[in-house]
Structure formats: C-alpha cells, structure tokens
Design brief:
The structure is a homodimer. With about 575 residues, chain A is α/β, with parallel strands linked by helices. In chain A, helix 3 (about 115-120) crosses helix 4 (about 125-130) and helix 4 (about 125-130) crosses helix 15 (about 375-380). Chain A contains 18 helices and 27 strands.
Chain lengths: ~575, ~575
C-alpha cells in the first residue's frame, strides 16, 4: 500500500505514540529482553539493562515489563551487523537464499552493488534485484552500478549513462552510486563519469570509491570529485592516505580479496571512526564455512588483537554513519530492533538474531523467510538472458597463431606467454573462447590458456567478469562446443564436460549468475564440479571456475580475452 | 537563477572537471595556501602542506601552484567553525549585521532556529529570515520552530501546526525541526507534536531536542520519538544519560546559559565524537567582547584542559556530522574552502577567515558583505508588527489586589511574593504589564514586580519571551503608558522613560526583535540604556531588559505575567 503523505505522517505519529507509551511504562512493551548485556556503541561500554521493544523498534532501555519477556543472562547483545559493500551475485544464490545464509551470522543489512546482473540485464537487472529483495529480513540496500560496461572494451548486456540510472535514486533503498572504478575518467574530465557523480550528489546520495593504489594528486582529484569511501586498500599506507583525505575506509575481507590483516592497525581510537567492514565478494563455501561480518569481527579480535568494542562499531555504527542509515547501528531508544545475541565478545558465536523486533534465528534454527514476489515479466527476463545461437566445433577453430594467456596460481593476474598454433596438452596449452551472449552478435574471441591443467573435456562458465559473456576452455573444439551449448541450453551456469556430456555443474538460471537453489545445494554442486574438474586435470591452486571467470576482465594485467579477441592490458 | 535538473548536473560535472584539473596539476589552482599547518580532523593531527583552492572548494592538499599564493608559515588553519544552535534574533542585530560580527571569529556556518521572529510573524518570519540570510558569507542554516506558541497560555503572533511548516523542508538551507520544548507532548501522545516529528523524519531531516533535566523512562520516550540532540544539559550526569541513549550533546556556552564548565569532561576520546558546540543566545556585548565559537574553543582548551584537536572537532566535524553537512567541517579535497587561520592552538586568535575560498577577514579588517535583498512585501510586514492601539494611563490602573512577582538577581526564575494593592517604591514594588501586541485584542495582563529597583520612570521592551508581546514596568501608570506608546510608535525595541519622555533605548524595528543598525551601535545604545536604567534605580544583578524579558515566559517557575494575567507555574 502506498500511503498518502498525510497518511504517512499520521502513521508515523501513531507509531511514536505506541513507542512512547511503552517507553514511559504506561503500556507493556511487545517484547522485553531482560537483564541484557549490550554493547553501547556511544559510550564504548558493555551495559546491562532490560531492552523494551515495540513493533520493529526499541522503545526504552532500563527496567521494563513486556507481553513477552526473555532472560538474556549470559549473552551479549550487539546491534545488527552491516556489510558495507557486496555484490550479492557473488554468492551464486538468489537474494532470498543469500539472506538465509547470512542472517544466522548476525547480518541485518547489506549494501549491495548489483553490478554483475546489471552488466547482463541493464536497468532491468536493478529492478529485478530491488523486487527480489523487498521485505526480506535482512535489509538489502543498494548503490547503483557506476560502470556498466566496466570498460569500453567489453561487450556487456547494457551501457548505462547517468540518465539511465537516475530515476533509481528515488527508491527508498537506494543509497547512492556504487564503486567508481573508472578513476581515470574521474580525474581526467570524462563528462559522462563526472555527470554520474554530480547527479548522485544532487540527490544527496553517497558515492563509493574503487581506486586500488591511487595516490598523490590523482587521489586528491578523485576524492575532490566527491567520492567518499574506498574498499580497495591493500596496505596501511594506502588506507591512511585515503582516510586523511576524508574517505571512509571499508576494510574488506571477502573470498577473493582479503585486506583485514593489512588494515587491522586502523582499528584504533585514532582512526576507527572512519572505518567499516565489507566483503565485496562472498562465494558459497566461504559463506558457509566462515560466516560473514561476524567472521571479520572474530578475526579482527582474535587474530589481530582489535578491541572488541571497536570491531563491533566498525561492523555497525560506522557503516550506519557513512551511509546515513538513521536508527541503525546502535542499541538505543528509537533504533530498529536489529539485534544479535552472541555468547561473548571473544568467540562472537551468534546465538539469536532479531530483525525489526522479530526473532529470526535461534538455537541453530532459522525461521521461515518470506519469498519476495518478482513481477512475472522481470522474472521471465532474468531467466532468459542467453541471446546466442548454438555453437559448433567449427566456431572454435582457427588457422591463426593466437596469444597464450598464462594463469598464475592463487592470483587473478595473468602473464603473456607468447603465441601458439593449437592445443598442446604436453605443454598445458588449452584453447579458450569468450562468446558474446547478450545480443547474438556472433562475436567469439579465441586464444590459448596455459597453466589451467585440463587434460581432457571442457569447462564453461557464464560467470565471466564483468560482462558475463560465456567463457569456455577445453582440450578440443568438440568438447568446447558441447560445454558452451550446455550453458546456453540451461540459461547459464557452470559446467564440466567430458566426452561431450556434462559430468558436473551448477545451473545459474538467474541472469546466468545466480541459482534459485539453496546455498548449501549450490555449494554441494559447485564442490562436486570442482572435484570433477580436478579429475580432468585442473591444477592445484587454480579455482577452476572463479580464476577462469577473471580471464575475460580486460582491466587486470597482463593478457585477457574478450569477445573481440585478446587484449594486452 | 533556477537551473533545470539537467543543467544542475552539467554544472556539477563542470565544477568537478575544474577541481580535478587543479588537483592533478594540469591547471593552476585559483589560490594556494602554501606551507599551511592545518588540523586534520580525520587523523587528529596537525599536518603541513599546500592547500589548493578552486572556486569555493579545496581541490587538493600536497604540493601545488596557484594563480595566487599565500605563505601560511606561522599560522594554523582550522575548518570554518559551526554554531549548532542559535537564535539569531538574540543578537538584536539583523542577520547581515550578525554575520559581520561572527565572521571575524571564524564562524562560517550557524544553525539558527527563528523561534523568536516566528512567534511574532508566523511562517512569514521564517521566510523573512531565509531571505535576509541568502548569500551571506556565513551560511545560515535553519531548523523550523517546533513550538509556536511556546505554550497554549501564550498569545503569540501565530500558531503553527505541522502542516504550516511542512513546505519549508524543501528549502535547501532547512535541516530539520528545531528544539522540541514540549517534551510532555512528545512523551504523552500529543498528536500535533508527534505529527511534527513524523513529518520531519519523512523529509529525512533532523529533530533537535530541548529537555532540561529529563531522565529515565521519560527520556527514553522522548528519544525514542526520534529526537537526536540536546543542548540543555547542565550536569555531566544528565549529558551522559542522553549521550548513552544516542543523542548528540550540544555543549552550550552562550550569554544566558553556560554549560561548558559542567560538560567539558565529555570532551575526551570516549565521548567527544557525539559532542558539538552551540551558543543558543548571544547578546550584543557578549558577542563583541568574548567572541563566538572561537571563545568556546579557547575556554575549553585554556580553562578546562580540553585537547585542542578535540575542541576543534567539536566546533567543526561533529557539528557537520550531526547535521549531515556534506563537505563541511574538515580540511580535505572536495570540502568547502571555509578556513580559519589562527595564530596557534592555545590562544586561537583568529587572523584570517576564508568563506568558500574568498578571504573575508584579514588583519582585523572585514571585507564588504553583500546585503541580501528581502522582498518588499516581507520587509514591510517585518517592519510593521505592532498591531495595538496607543495606551492611556487608565489602561494600567486597577482596583484589584494583584500578585507580586519576585525577581531573583542573576536568574530568570522568579518567586511568588504574595499580593499588593499598588506601587510601593519603599518596598520596591513596581507595576508590571504585558500588552498583547499582535492582534490588537486589547488584552493587558497586570501585576506587581518586586526586586527590579526602579525608583522613577518606566522601562518597556518588545523582546518578551517567547511571544514577544510588550512588557512594561514602571513607577507609575503615566510613565508606563508613555513607555508602551514609545515602543508602539517605533515598531519595537527597548526604551527607558523618565518624566514621560524616552531618555535611552534601542529601536528594534524588525519584528520588534532586531535592529538594522550595526551590532556595535546596537550595543552602544543598549549599554547606554542600561546605564540610564541603573540611574533610575534598577538593581545590580538585574539585567534591566534581558531579565525583564523572561517575566512573560509562562514555563519558568514561579510566577509569570501573560497578556491574560498572572500565571503560577
């Protein structure tokens, strides 16, 4: 229901009346957490009191009675945890399944950049994610993708100008403009890029940064343009240079990139108020095995000696302050009753999670999570993003000598390994192809790949940064065509082909990026596919799908393959 | 000129282009402050660098060349100072003259609550102040008066509901709802009061508090309703109770109320991030003799041992954070070039002030300040707010016994001194009247006043909290009528009458509250009037006008006089 403004004021006044009735004790609260030890992020202390909750908010903290009462003795309450920057798509799960996975870890809000799906679906990708996250018990807040496509070399599903994304700023869950990767454009007068920043500012919104290694005058220029945060710092010096110029530093500890060890020294009284946590990318097994923001807190405290209160503030208050999330990030009257009970401030094991006053997780059990209704037309669009004709082995053949991309174990950078005239399994030279799959242009980039290790069969994936075309690598062209056709037929995902037939894989039917399956099942299939890929020879130290997915990103050194062919970066 | 949105984006992009060109060194900056020591509020350090300025913003901080260059050796730069809560009217000067007075003290932004003029003129009072502050070199930001009239007992010039003030939230300089004094209304379900809060929140705006001495559950309720700050704390315990519940604490050090000594212990790393400075009321001599926010910093550092960096942050960054003033409160790329050069971090003597990159004060000299153009109709309204017929001595006569208000030297509280049947100069019992002056209702409240000291003549003032009716106190009714008629004839102000003729006074022709004269001249006339009042017998320890102005405020104990007669509070 869309209220009139008058109605919204009336409802706001009525909600306040109910809150104040409970706060003053004239009415019982809905729920009182009795004898609760809680982290007061305003005084940096652990306090003990009853916490009275009415509806989705905290009414008062003191001595209270409630319709329901829970004794909290022996636990410590934290404000709900906030991930300052993530691409939800990186979990390979639908938003609902992502929420099921992170809520038991105490996460009650994430700020997502739907960069991946938007590179596939354009603005409809943003709409899809907004609808698919509506009403979930983890608040999914959005920044608008700033760089679609990531580079002009890419053939993505869409190309978005400032005008294309502008109307999204009116959505109540859109907080700003996401990581501005085009720092050259910012600092060297690209009108389209600067217009995106100007528009975000005119809407009173935040602009996130992404500028690994930028220093000195270029960094001054980038920040002067209005970019308020960075999550790409990999050294303390880099972080301090950005912090002293006014940026908030998002300390990232995700799956692909891990900066906590380097940046933990920021988490002191001198600097911590400008620091928050984020994950950027979280892959299924990492989410399931380690956790989410709770994991970063545990690591900060136990491995890096960070004061637990400071770690909690980075995970709560500071994120809320940077993003101007009123009524979040603290346990205080009027704040959202987003609460996490942990056993203590050392192990930080999550025991209970309340979202908006409702207990959603308790004793290892997650309550039912409402499934957001996505409009039929959007849902159909999201499940039909492969606009490419079936391929034949001929499509992968060439007489030309082609460049050889060298993979580096444990890294996403590559090396330039010269040229080759064909597959050479002895020398671990495989054929690699990137197939344009958004507009059926017929563009196929071909090249060779060394260091992957495959001895037979083929591997294909539609998770292919950042444009998410179709990457195929194989020991011969017939297997490659089979793998590509399998992905096209299943509308996206990952497949391992042996003898012309898929032997393992994950269907990622939402935009070729996400599955409707539960995260555990996605992970099971993915681990199975990894094992099968290893059986086919893929080397230790190479993630057969994730490392492969970066071979098409033409902004990372040294040699990359796009739909138009090899690119030297 | 009102830009189209498209035009605003284009201008925003162009401004960024120019900033980044200078930041990267491709173009010279407009101005470079060379070798500048400056307080970095993000790292809590004094750094040294060149500060490059383009237009009204800082482009970069490092090593720069500019069209103009100034060597800053031997000075320390601070961000422009911010007063978090003031009623500009308290200076008795027009906004332009107020700005002339505070800019040399390093103030570059104030958050004003036009409570006084709005009680006289209603919404036109807000419009008048918005127009009268447009384009001034101190940014005058607004909170909307929340309590007009201050109490239902008052007869003010207007009565404003949430709907009456709602459209003002669209103005770019309106930041929220001003001090909510009706805390009983907030905590006990007054629908009009709660609707004002709900509306402010729906506009994404701040709600300031005013709740002296409120504690426990009532305080929880008040804060739960969304009120984010308090400037009325007079003890450390009270401030901590509010701070730990999430309110920002405005440490007030003004003319009438001074809380710095009690609250300075908050200015430590544990609490300071939630603290800012304000003055609330600053009277002419106090502004001229002591200064403004710079004075609070000096006092904090030199008298109360506060760390200078923390004091500077309370005067800058923390105010900007509470009010969400992007690009203010720090010296960093992209921030407004609002800068204050002081000699050192002990004496904090202001040597130069830049507002938006323009040096406005230097070597004791203030540059010309543009005079805002107020619409003719508004200006006429503001200069014609006395709607009351001339009075005769008969209007002040009565046969009844009336209550006696006892004044208390140095305080604004009063005592109930029983009743009297007439003026009795031996016992220092004078007649006092409060005359309704907004709607010519003919209402005159009469009573007696003890402790003022006047031996002959009369004193009248149209500064009469909070409804600003006309207060007259006199030794006889003829003198009282003369004093009242003098104020009516001059459309407001303060007068001292002796023998039926004014012997001193200040004309306050703007709404009966402010003068168009320079602050120095207002002060000279006011001091002269004080001297004349003293000659007529007014007691030491009684400010003849300020203390008198509170005798009509029916929310302060014990006995008060309104237009309808005496009120026991």
């Amino acid at each position: 229901m869309q209220d009139s403004y008058n109605g919204a004021v009336r409802r706001g006044a009525a909600a306040r009346k109910r809150l104040t009735e409970a706060a003053t004790g004239r009415q019982k609260a809905d729920l009182v957490l009795k004898n609760a030890s809680y982290v007061n992020v305003f005084t940096d202390q652990v306090s003990v009191a009853d916490i009275a909750i009415v509806g989705d908010r905290i009414a008062g903290i003191g001595s209270y009675e409630g319709e329901r009462e829970l004794d909290m003795t022996g636990k410590v309450l934290l404000p709900g945890l906030i991930d300052g920057h993530i691409h939800l798509e990186s979990s390979l799960a639908s938003p609902g399944e992502f929420v099921r996975a992170v809520l038991p870890h105490g996460t009650t809000a994430v700020v997502t950049d739907p960069h991946e799906i938007t590179n596939v679906m354009g603005t409809e990708g943003i709409d899809y994610m907004l609808e698919a996250t509506e009403g979930l018990p983890v608040d999914v807040l959005f920044l608008l993708p700033s760089c679609v496509p990531a580079t002009p070399m890419d053939e993505s599903g869409a190309e978005l100008s400032w005008r294309d994304i502008d109307s999204f700023y009116d959505h109540p869950r859109v907080l700003g403009l996401a990581e501005m990767m085009n720092y050259y454009g910012v600092t060297h007068g690209d009108e389209g890029v600067l217009s995106k920043l100007a528009a975000a500012q005119l809407h009173g919104k935040r602009m996130d940064g992404h500028a690994p290694g930028l220093t000195g005058r270029e960094l001054d220029a980038y920040i002067a343009a209005g970019i308020g945060s960075d999550h790409e710092c990999s050294t303390l010096d880099e972080a301090l240079a950005k912090l002293e110029r006014g940026q908030y530093i998002m300390i990232r500890e995700g799956t692909a990139a891990r900066n906590l060890a380097a940046l933990a020294p920021l988490l002191t009284p001198q600097y911590a108020s400008r620091c928050l946590f984020c994950t950027d990318d979280k892959h299924p097994n990492d989410l399931l095995e380690k956790g989410h923001i709770d994991y970063i807190i545990r690591e900060a405290v136990n491995r890096h000696g960070v004061d637990p209160i400071i770690a909690v503030k980075a995970a709560t208050l500071h994120a809320a302050q940077y993003f101007r999330l009123d009524g979040r990030g603290a346990i205080a009257p009027g704040y959202l009753a987003d609460l996490v009970a942990v056993d203590d401030l050392t192990s930080f094991r999550v025991q209970q999670v309340w979202k908006g006053g409702v207990c959603r997780y308790e004793n290892g059990t997650l309550s039912d999570i409402p499934k957001p209704q996505v409009s039929a037309d959007l849902d159909e669009l999201a499940h039909d993003t492969f606009h490419v004709s079936p391929l034949t082995p001929e499509d992968f053949r060439t007489e030309e000598s082609l460049g050889v991309i060298g993979m580096v174990p444990g890294e996403i950078v590559s090396t330039d390994n010269g040229t080759a005239d064909g597959v050479d399994l002895e020398r671990d030279i495989l054929k690699i192809a990137v197939i344009e799959r958004h507009h059926n242009t017929g563009h196929i980039g071909l090249g060779y790949l060394q260091g992957y290790g495959l001895k037979r069969g083929a591997v294909a994936t539609s998770v292919a940064h950042d444009s998410h075309n179709l990457i195929v690598v194989g020991a011969d062209e017939t297997e490659m065509a089979a793998a590509a056709n399998q992905i096209i037929a299943q509308h996206g995902g990952i497949t391992v082909v042996d003898g012309g037939r898929p032997v393992a894989g994950v269907v990622l039917e939402i935009a070729g990026l996400m599955s409707d399956l539960p995260l555990e099942e996605i992970n099971r299939r993915l681990e199975d596919a990894k094992a099968k890929a290893a059986e086919l020879g893929v080397s230790d130290g190479i993630d057969p799908f994730m490392t492969l997915s970066f071979m098409s990103l033409p902004v990372i050194p040294t040699l990359r393959l796009t739909t138009r062919g090899l690119v030297r970066v």
